[in-house]
Design a protein that fits this description.
alpha/beta; five-stranded mixed sheet; 7 strands
């Protein structure tokens, strides 16, 4: 984010054990492929009763089925209470102090309240729902829909077509999530983590941008090449999430239900 200065209270520490020593709250923001090694290094460093919150957008699939990233962290950290934060908050706009919203999904109400007090301010409004699966998986699946929105843009189609992709995508997200987690309430999809995040990602996110470029390149450039060209070191999550979702749907024999 060129031109943005980090606050004075952010201190860089290359030693992860030192950085997390006696921590009461951990914020996880990294590719989930690195979680196992990370958790092993830090779980003995944190304070007793330390809680965590994940901003990681993705899903994982193993021999037992779908696994939440927050549950992977919980297991890796020896049972740590985990919440998640998702929402319509593109990083450059947040850094610029522009108003936005986010949603915390928690299992423990006390943790949710504490984390809300930590993140909420006049320009970053945070709502809390006692719904980790709904909030977390919305944050992952919207990136898959955003790829479709980018394909629409790359093909030169208009806003009517993109609106249809967003609507159909929202319905498929809802059906997918509630088929795996029936207790997820409809109201979660109307929070910032749901419809708002889907809209902003389909118009302004890097998954949409790379998908548009993929179409315009005529399929001659891979997504890895486009990431290197366009994202200045950042990565997109939609492609990896799509692979995991297809595995889950194929295992359940439901791939044809999600066109």
């Amino acid at each position: 984010m060129p031109g943005q200065k980090l606050p004075h209270n952010i201190v860089a520490d290359p030693d992860i054990s030192s950085a997390t020593k006696d921590a009461d709250i951990l914020v996880f923001v990294l590719p989930h492929q690195f979680l196992n090694g990370l958790c092993e290094k830090i779980k003995a460093s944190v304070a007793p009763g330390c809680i965590g919150i994940s901003l990681i957008k993705g899903v994982h699939f193993d021999e037992k089925g779908m696994v939440l990233i927050s549950d992977m962290i919980k297991e890796g950290m020896g049972g740590m209470d985990m919440s998640v934060l998702m929402g319509a908050n593109l990083a450059p706009e947040v850094a610029a102090g522009q108003f936005c919203e986010a949603t915390i999904g928690c299992r423990d109400e006390a943790s949710g309240s504490l984390l809300q007090s930590l993140f909420h301010d006049p320009n970053f409004h945070v709502a809390v729902r006692k719904d980790v699966p709904g909030v977390e998986i919305c944050g992952a699946l919207k990136n898959v829909v955003a790829l479709g929105a980018g394909f629409v843009d790359g093909m030169g189609l208009g806003d009517n077509t993109k609106a249809a992709i967003i609507r159909i995508g929202m319905m498929e997200m809802k059906r997918f999530i509630q088929s795996h987690y029936p207790d997820v309430e409809d109201a979660t999809f109307f929070e910032s983590c749901g419809v708002a995040d889907l809209i902003v990602t389909c118009y302004g996110g890097r998954n949409r941008r790379c998908a548009e470029a993929f179409v315009k390149a005529g399929g001659k450039k891979s997504f890895d090449e486009l990431e290197a060209e366009l994202l200045n070191g950042q990565k997109i999550q939609g492609t990896g999430t799509a692979v995991e979702v297809v595995k889950i749907l194929e295992a359940a024999g439901k791939l044809e239900e999600y066109p």
